[in-house]
Amino acid sequence: MLSQEVIQNALKAVKYPGFSRDIISFGLVREISVANGAVSVMLQLTSPNPDAARQIKGECEQVLKGLSGVNHVLVDVKQPTSGQAETGKSFANQTKVPGVKHIIAVASGKGGVGKSTCSANLACALKHLGARVGLLDCDIYGPSIPLMMGVYERPAVSEKEQLVPPVSHGVKVMSMGLLLNDDQPVIWRGPMITKTIQQFLFAVAWGDLDFLLVDLPPGTGDAQLTLCQTVPLDGGVVISTPQEAALGVVRKGIAMFNKVNVPILGIVENMSYFTAPNGERIEIFGHGGGKREAARQNVAFLGEVPIFPEIREAGDRGTPMVVSTPNHPASKAFIQIAENLRKFLK
Ligand SMILES: Nc1ncnc2c1ncn2[C@@H]1O[C@H](COP(=O)(O)OP(=O)(O)OP(=O)(O)O)[C@@H](O)[C@H]1O
Ligand SMILES: [Mg+2]
Predict the structure, then answer these.
(1) What is the mean pLDDT of residues 262-277?
(2) Domains assigned to the chain
(3) What's the CA-to-centroid distance between 37 and ligand 1, angstroms?
(4) What residue owns the CA closest to ligand 1's atom 3?
(5) Residue 268 CA: which ligand is closest?
(6) Atom 16, ligand 1: residue with shortest CA distance
(7) Ligand 1 atom 28: residue of nearest CA
(8) Atom of ligand 1 nearest to the CA of 305
(9) Which of 118, 226, 311, 315 has minimal Cβ neighbours within 10 Å of its Cβ?
(10) What is the pLDDT of residues 158-191, one digit of tens each?
């Protein structure tokens, strides 16, 4: 039976030009009606680019005409004028970052669960797998990426007046921590933070990257939502601990990405278990909560990272585990998660 649901599912095959995301997940399809085999679809694009509209219209028509029972197709693609697009919210002002294939945000419902540790190690793990990687620290008030990646130099300014991200362990890094002196407190208002993040995306010479990982500040409040709307994200990763999963905090992270139409690439369970020196596996907070929550929420489970004091020590020394000891079980866990991520974003 031809229904709105059937049409919606079929349209998931149409990707936004240049993105790995489809037009449904971007929330661009506003109206679907179907009667006696005649299908009419209305899309509201947020970009004024006429080529994107033409391509999307053509692909939608092709997909819909291929459905059985369809005898007439009408695809109406609405676009803002250039002026409207600039002032628009959400995906409207999310122009792609030139040269960057995929932008992935790392978030969690609560602070201190290991977002920055996972971002740094996953960035290095993706690099280890041969990808070109950048790591953007969006934690303006509490940047910890410079310490974890061992970068302290101030970014140079290029001839084109762009900030040149320092490279550490083969990963390009940008953070507020590189631009401030240690004793300078950050007391900014929201709009300034949004502006800064936009500059971190568009006024930094990222060059060609396969992945740009974005370490978000803790929580899932308005500030994080605004960030997710500012950055043209391809997907989100939610970091959880078994405890957090048990308390339902993971759901907040998932809900945040859902609100801004960012597909959830999956959940990582950090501090999953501890391996005692005699090899015994000790599950301090219980274990498997992340996996169960992922199944409940119908999102992928990307993997689990055990607790090892070495992970913290490596972070404090500025050389993530994946770089210092790639054969350590914890590093292997990060590399496995990076492989799973890469599979999703081919
Ligand atoms: N799997 C792990 N094993 C051991 N220590 C860990 C592990 N994951 C994180 N840590 C340590 O836990 C602390 C908090 O981690 P991290 O700073 O990455 O969390 P966060 O979620 O980014 O915190 P915030 O919310 O403040 O940004 C750090 O000292 C880190 O070294
Ligand atoms: Mg952090």
Answers:
(1) 87
(2) 4-88 (3.30.300.130), 94-344 (3.40.50.300)
(3) 55
(4) 307
(5) 1
(6) 114
(7) 312
(8) 1
(9) 226
(10) 998 899 999 999 999 999 999 877 666 667 677 7
